[in-house]
């Protein structure tokens, strides 16, 4: 069917499906005050044609639908009456009167679907437009000599009613002078004066034909949708009287009205639709700040013109007579460069010829997204995350990725990735998917990957890097094993090895990832990979890439025992400025220091730690690494150095106890005892008891040692205290026997009257006391390794 046939069929469907009255709708007017202008907005539940122009006393907004009632109750709650003096709505004519007394002009646009916005802006209009001309031009009175009233003038589309890329061609192709039955007669607006040609070449836009084909396809799709819905509800039946020869459909004649966009000009509703509940009103969000989705349409079109012809045609029209640049041609050239993926060239065109254009911020932001330079994006896409259409896709390329993304926004992003031409898809989709992965949006990243993998052919090393990242997370389609695991990591490494062996731009990044995975798995690097990294460090010396490689290579060298080379790499990396917020060098230095403390030999460890360059190493590394260094120094007999390397440690119990031992090794017992204040537990009680014993407080030391469960320390403290009760509780058997034997109460006492039995009893008491002393001396000498001389039993035997 030809486009004209489709257009006639659209009018037939509109007549069948809109014959009954539509449900009325009440719309609340929203208002807001801004610097330099006052804004009012209407959020409609269904589509309606509209127009804005000057009327007596101000401006008028006319809605084509007459079933709309505008609620003005809160119109002036948020705005003063300096620009807009009053607002009145006539439901019969559909006219909203905006009364003004200021020297102002109007701007009107649609902000999203069914959202009509009118701004009353200070000052006269910069250029004449349809919003600041008469809304109802005066109609000349008919001449008296006329035999009959003249026929109603034909309906014409106002200038600007169609999108800029399609208006002229579609108007020439489809518009006709027609008269609709029962239509209100309006005089046609005067034609806008055209600028003189001046001999310049016509401005060509390579996306025009592709957009026209897309628009016709949309018309056909919308008609089929409406016909299918009406047929399913029994509202449409084929009429055999319109069948032509061999079943062909009769072609429309000149009276068939035009239809330039079925989604806006055809409002189909049936009895089933009317019986359904009203749709929920649109949410009150910030969609008023969203850009028109049509600004992005050229990025998903598919012109048939060759790229070099697109560039040459746009550049040829750039300069007019006397080398005056054409802003329209400059916009066309910028769109060509952006479509082809030339961000820097598009940026030059915008900065050179479109600095004052309303589209300049958007085009600069798109150029930054194409070239992966978010710092140059400016404000063109700020706040566009969550907006309908392609806006969210491009906003994520140059802005931060939020932690949560709405389901509808995810669908818009995935649809944009699928709609992009293949060359832009291969350039942008892997990059955006990697950004999404970094924020945990794995499902959306995999969806974007699928949008690219559905196309035939290889998709470049950027796509392979994305596959490796997904495989590491367990993505089965990328080669993972369902979850992060050793098998998934090996699958990612296999992909990265293939990329690292190429000479593509992603090869160094692939090598960085291979080094990262090896360090995470505590595996040594193969010698050839270390040599590859060294070569790239030399080739890119002084750059961020060289710094990243040196930082990643240091722990791998330390794992191989090359600690001097590892610290040298980290020292060299410190001389190169880093632009990232969290410097990976800190983590690499901590890991290298930890490996030094755990794996290095005593000679290598001490050589490294007594290097003047490493004097403050403990303050530069993480707390676990500093603790490991200090503990190793203390175990090797260097308490001073252990204290110096642990100065920056937090006041955690484990770290404080290590410092207490270092102070004890230096004989600073009072300071050590004070450092134990507030610490609880068996270990701290044992150290506290030992320190009290050193300070001569043996009784307290005995008590704390018993509480800590250190029986040997308690025995020593009890014996040193001389307390018989403590010795009986904690002392050895010999110590307890000696204490009992030497008590004053048990001292041998000579009988009052000399007698043989009394003398023998005295000798027995002396023998018992001497035996206890001998047993104790023998025990102590055995413990210390000394030799106790044997006592002459003959000298002490009774009766000797």
UniProtKB/TrEMBL annotation:
Keywords, ordered alphabetically: Signal
Domain of life of the source: Bacteria
Region ranges (Disordered): 134-166, 180-206, 725-757, 776-800
Keyword Signal: yes
Extent of the signal sequence: 1-23
Name by which UniProt lists this protein: Uncharacterized protein
